[in-house]
Every structure is written in C-alpha cells, then in structure tokens.
Amino acid sequence: MSGLPYFCEGEVVKGFGRGSKELGVPTANFPQEVVDKLPECVESGVYYGWANVDGGEVYKMVMSIGWNPYYNNTKKSMVDELITAIENDIQQSKDKLELPENQTFKSNNFFKDTDSKKD
Ligand SMILES: Cc1cc2nc3c(=O)[nH]c(=O)nc-3n(C[C@H](O)[C@H](O)[C@H](O)COP(=O)(O)O)c2cc1C
Hints:
- By secondary structure, the protein is an alpha+beta fold.
- The protein has a single domain (18-108), classed as Elongation Factor Tu (Ef-tu), domain 3, CATH 2.40.30.
- The chain has helices spanning 18-21, 32-36, 69-73, 79-97, 100-103; strands spanning 45-51, 59-65.
- A two-stranded antiparallel sheet has the order 1-2.
- A hairpin with a 7-residue loop joins strand 1 (45-51) and strand 2 (59-65).
- It is globular.
- Bound molecules: flavin mononucleotide (FMN).
- Flavin mononucleotide is lined by residues 15-19, 23, 25, 27, 29, 46, 62, 64, 68-71, 82, 85-86, 89-90.
C-alpha cells in the first residue's frame, strides 16, 4: 500500500475507557490532531506496526483507525464478537511483524530519542 510505512508521534490521551473495561484490551489513544494529519491514503482499518515511548523499548503494536463502528449501533451482548475479532487482529499482527521486511522498521531512527528529534 502506498504511503506506508507511516511514522507518527503524539501524546497519549484518554479514550472512552472501553478498551480495558469491556474488551480486556487496553488501548493507548492519540489526540485528534495526530489523526487529522494522517495522509488520505491511510484509510480506516486495522494496521500493525511498531511503537515506543520516549525512546524506550520498541514493541509490536496494532492500531485501529476509524470510527469504532461497533460501538455506534450494536448491543453490548455482542461484545464477545468484537473481542474475538480484535484478538485475531493481534495474532495476525504479531505474525506479520516477525517477517524480515517488517522487522527492519523496528530499529528505525524514528524510535530513537535523540536531540535532533527533540524540539
Ligand atoms: C486491533 C483492534 C481492532 C479493532 N477493531 C474494531 C472493529 O472491528 N470495530 C470497532 O468498532 N472497533 C474496533 N476497534 C476499536 C475499539 O472499539 C476501541 O479501541 C475500543 O473501543 C477502545 O477504545 P477506548 O479506549 O476509546 O475506549 C479495534 C481496536 C483494536 C486495537
């Protein structure tokens, strides 16, 4: 897909709190400004990649970009289905990130907390 990999950074902000409570999948949320800057080619969907905090260890990550359609018009009794889907996304991401072409990004300078990156 063109436009990928895409690198972005921002503060971690509070989400709706459903990730931990209802889904058992704690999420870190980016503020709206970061989302607004996404290039158009990055469509709504689930993406895998790498993430770190303040130049620390780089971890595998999976990210949902979009509207959380599930929560707009679905009953709570179906939450199990979303949990299963997310767990499947997580497993697929873990596997894909093991591929050599994806491992290379883990050591990208972007993740280093160097002076040149500080403002
Ligand atoms: C890997 C992954 C897959 C997701 N897939 C969906 C989805 O298919 N449908 C949906 O409505 N939300 C999806 N979400 C978004 C979750 O609904 C959202 O992260 C959750 O509500 C937690 O948000 P909160 O921290 O703001 O409460 C996904 C999130 C992740 C991390």
